[in-house]
Amino acid sequence: MSVSMSHEMNTETSNEQSHEISNAVSEIKLSTRIKKTLKQKLADLVPAWEGRVQDIPASGEVLSGPCAVIAFAEEVPKSAWAGYRRIIKISPYARSEDGGAEQVEGWSALLIAGLHQVRLEDEQGGAFTCLYLGSTDSDRADIASGLVTRSLRFGVYVPEPERASENGVTSDPWLAALQQWTGNELGADWSLYADRWPGGYKMPSVLWRLSGYSTAVAGTSALEVRKQWIGHILTEDTSLTNQTVSHLVQRLSLQSRIPITQVGNEGDGVHATDASHTRYVTVDEVTADLQADAYLNGQIRLTLTQRIRRPVTSAPLMREIHHNKGIE
C-alpha cells in the first residue's frame, strides 16, 4: 500500500471518528437540555414535590419525602417526520402515610395530562413533544425509603433542524395547493408545515405529508394519479384540536376540487393567474380518527386524484387495407 493511500485512509477514518464524536456530544447536550426542561415542567405540575425532581439516586442514596425521579431509557430509530426519539421514565414517589398508591395515582394523572402531546421548549428555543406510552409496571414500594412509586413511560420527540436548502418551500404543487387551502380555512393564526415537523415548530399548527402515490390507466388517453396525504392537527387544547379536525374533514368533503396554479414558461406570454393554466385535484376520500396521536400519526387521511394526458406514442400510420373474400 502506498504512503499516499494509507494517509487518505487514515484521514477518512479520522473524519468519521470526529463526526461520530461530534454527534455523540450533540446528543449529550440535547439530552441535558431536555432533562432540565422536563425537571422544571414536572416541578410546576406538582408543587407538593417542592422542586424535588431528580436523577436516579446514587448507590446507597435514600430518597426522602415526596419527589419524582426522571431517567432516560432506550433510544428509538428516528422518524422521517417526527425526528429524534428517546424514551424517558418518570417515577413519582409518595409516602404511605400521605396516601401511598392513591397519591401516586393522582400525580400520575397530572403528569399524563400535563405532558402528553404537549409542546415544550428548552432554554435554546428548541421545541420537543412528549407522548405518554403507558406504565411499565405496577405500583411498588421502594425498599430503601419505603416510598410508593410507579414508572411512567414517555416518548420524547425532537424535530430535526431545518436544512438551509429547504427554507420551508415545497416543490410538490399538490402539497402547496393543500397548504394554501388549509390556510384559507383556518386563518393566519395557524402555522402550516410540509413533510415533517421543523425544529422550533409552533402551535396551533397543521402538518401535511405524503403517505402514498399510485397511478392507473383511465381510458386510452389518460392516467389517473392518486396521492394519499396525512394531516396532523396539533393544538394545546383537545377540544380545539377535535373541532379543527372535524371542520377540515367536513370542508374537504364538500370541496369537490382544489385548484393548482400552473406557471407558464418564460416568454410564452402566459401568466400564472390565467384560467387556462389552473388545473385541479379532486377530493376522492377523506376520513378522520380523533383518537390518533396528533404529533406522530396524524388524524386525517386524505386521497386526492387528478387525470393527466398519456403521452402519444409515435407509430407508422396505416394508409391502406386490402381484403380478399375468396378462399383458395
Helices and strands, with pairings:
Elements: H1 3-45, E1 53-54, E2 67-79, E3 83-94, H2 101-115, E4 118-121, E5 127-135, E6 140-141, E7 148-149, E8 152-158, H3 173-186, E9 191-194, E10 205-217, E11 222-234, H4 238-254, E12 257-261, E13 278-288, E14 300-309
Parallel strand pairs: 1-2, 9-10
Antiparallel strand pairs: 2-3, 3-7, 3-8, 4-5, 5-8, 6-7, 10-11, 11-14, 12-13, 13-14
Number of strands: 14
What is the CA-based Rg, rounded? 29 Å
Strand residues, percent: 25-35%
Number of helices: 4
| Apparent shape | elongated
Largest sheet data? 8 strands, mixed
What is the string of SSEs from the N terminus onward?
Answer: HEEEHEEEEEHEEEHEEE
| Mean pLDDT over the full residue set | 83
Distance between the termini: 81 Å
Specify the structural class.
alpha+beta
- Binned, the helix content reads 25-40%
Low-confidence stretches: 19-24, 263-275
Would you mind describing this structure in some detail?
This protein has 328 residues and is α+β, with helices and mostly antiparallel strands. Helices cover 27% and strands 33% of the residues. A hairpin with a 3-residue loop joins β2 and β3. The radius of gyration is 29 Å and the shape is elongated. It starts with a helix and ends in a 19-residue tail after the last strand.
In short:
This protein is α+β, with helices and mostly antiparallel strands. The chain has four helices and 14 strands. It has helices at residues 3-45, 101-115, 173-186, 238-254, and strands at 53-54, 67-79, 83-94, 118-121, 127-135, 140-141, 148-149, 152-158, 191-194, 205-217, 222-234, 257-261, 278-288, 300-309.
